[in-house]
Every structure is written in C-alpha cells, then in structure tokens.
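Example with several molecule types.
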Amino acid sequence: MHLNTHYQALHEQYLFSDIARKVNAYRSEHPDAQVISLGIGDVTLPLAPAIVESMRKAVEEMGNAATFHGYGPEQGYPFLREAIANEYAQRSVALEDDEIFISDGAKSDLGNILDLFSADNAVLIPDPVYPVYVDTNLMAGRSIRYLKADKQNHFLPMPDPDVCCDLVYLCSPNNPTGAAYNREQLKAWVEYATGKGAVILFDAAYESFITGDDIPHSIYEIPGADSCAIEFCSFSKMAGFTGVRCGWTIVPHNLRSGGMSLNRMWLRRQTTKFNGVPYIVQRGAQAALSPEGKQQIRESIAYYQQNANAIHQMLTQAQIYHTGGQNSPYIWMECPGKMASWDFFQRLLAAVQVVGTPGAGFGKNGEGFFRLTAFGSHEQTEEAVRRMREFFQMREDGRGSCVRF
Ligand code: PLP
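Resulting structure tokens for the full complex:
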C-alpha cells in the first residue's frame, strides 16, 4: 500500500482557527468587550420566501408515491438547466442545455475538474488566492506557478506572453481581493489561453455582486472563451445556498483537445462519480431564478452591497488603498503604516474590537493586506465602520486621515 505522498506538500490550514483562537483569548481577557467580526465569508440572511415555498412543495412531492423522485439525472434536472441557460441568454450567451452541469456547489467541481487533466500540466494560480485552487493541485502533485497580484496591477494580474501554462485559474470578482476584471482584461486572458492552448478555469461564484457595466458576469461574454474556458458558478452567495448546496459548471462543446471533448469527458466523470443534486435543492435553485425569487434575492444582495459600500466609503475617506466593495462582498485593504497583516489584526482587535482576516493567510502577496467582508448585519457593520473611523482618527464628516500610523 502506498499513500498519495503529495498530501505532504499541503500546508495546514490554520488561518480561521488562528483567528478564532486569538479572538477567544481576547474575549477571555476582556469579557465585556463587544467584538464585531467583519471576517465572516458566509452569508447570514435566510433563504428567500420563494425558495422556501418551492422546496416545501418539493418535500411534499417526495412524500407522495405519484410524485416521488429517486435518482435524478447526474447532469441535473432539465428545469434547472433551462433556467440557468435563460440567465446566460439574457447576457447574449447561448448555451446548449448539455453544456450545463448542476453541482452541489462550486468547490466540489473546482476540485473534481482536475480529473480531466494530466498531472504533468503546468498550472498558473494568482496569489493571493482562494486556497482550494492551490490545495487541489498540490494533492495531485502538479507544479504551480504563481501569478503575482499586487497594488501595482490593482490585484488583477494580466497574462505574460513569456509564461507558458496549461491551466490558469481566474476568479472574478475575486475572493479575497474583491477585484473584478473588465471586458478588455478578460479578452486579453482569452487571447492568451487561446494562443497557448491553455484552459481557463473561471470561478464566477461572486458574479451576482457585480454592479459595473463593463465587468462581465461570465467569461463566455468574451468571444472565443467557449473554446478555452470552463466556468464555475454557485447559488451559495447569490441565493444564500451555502448550507443548501447547489451550483453549476459550464463545459462548452467547443472545448476539445487531441480529438477529445472535455464536455463528454466531464459527463463521463460525473455519471461515474456523482449521483446528482437532491431534487428538493434543485427546485429551490429553480425558484431563485424565477421572477419572484430573483426580486427577493436581489434584495438580500443589495443588503450586503450596502454594507460593502459603507466599508468602501470609510476606507476611501481615510485614504486607505483598497480593492473590492463595489463589485464584490469583499474589501481588501492595505494595512496602514506598512503593518504586517497579523499585526494589524491584533491592533484592530485590541483598539476597537473589530475582526477581519489577515491577508497573509491567502498567499505570500497577501502580506500587508487585510480582508473585510460585507456579510454581517447592517447594525454590526455600521458599528464596525464607526469604530474603524475612530481608529483611523477620522471625524464623522470623513475628513482627516490615519494620523496614528
Ligand atoms: N469559489 C470561491 C472564490 C469562493 O470564495 C467559494 C466559497 O467561499 C467557493 C468557490 C465555493 O462556493 P460553494 O459554496 O459553491 O462551494
């Protein structure tokens, strides 16, 4: 018996447990402190009523012999694939229904897609990054080359024609930086991938937070992307499905290599290793895309966007460099006074009891940066913003900057 020794290359994921440990230590020393977390990456608002109602009906169907559903199609029920295809059609992206695969969320498919690719492929991954891209490749023993995202490129690294790769991960709007690629930038990536014969693994999990007209919601809004990109999307942040679990992956028919179709390979992979997403969940996801459901989920997204905007405004007034907050629930700020991200974490916690996520936890280039999120309540976010203003010694009218640093 031989183990997959590539697991030894994985770094332990201490980030969120370290944060919890430090916050708990602070709380035990200051039992009366009202600590507010802007570190949470999970939604907090409940499911929209249209979704709940649709799932309730689906539960009743499951309890009745005449309407009971057993195994469903591995690719997902046609009613949900059709609803997703309609969403893309509204952005002038024409998808055939067998190019859409319903998943139990973007994370599983982001990992599972690697079944289609040889272990000797060279992978390009931005840094800082959502750690799943790195770890799933390390587990398979692939060599990773990092793409530097920094202040200079506004955390939106662009392709370097001198760098070759077979797979490249793009996440827009990005976790953790909140930065989002515009049309021209994505066009450059599609041209690069087409030229190199590489595949873009495009993570659109936060597309529902996009407000800018020039920011594509899907990579397929760029001509030619259907020959070089796979897209992953999710109901998690869009419709509060983090605990319900549903997403989708697009593998276009035009994506082919060496006489093989990636769409057929993925279908084969899914029918072999996956038995589909529960009927009840898919009915809930369908309701999220109904006119009534869309109106309701738009309200929840707007709620989080207001939080993001409040944080963005406060940082803008404090003249603190940051990305995100406008097309994203994440705000990625530079730690003032060139502080290291864990030092800033401690300072902010001790001074005003606000918790965020140190950027160093998302990769080497995250050092010196800090992630704040918009998934809290209005009340808590407003209070955190008020305290941070105080921390940066700003007046209520926004004047003044961080004289303490
Ligand atoms: N992609 C990114 C960039 C994320 O931040 C997350 C979750 O936080 C996911 C994918 C996974 O989402 P899901 O809940 O659909 O698995």
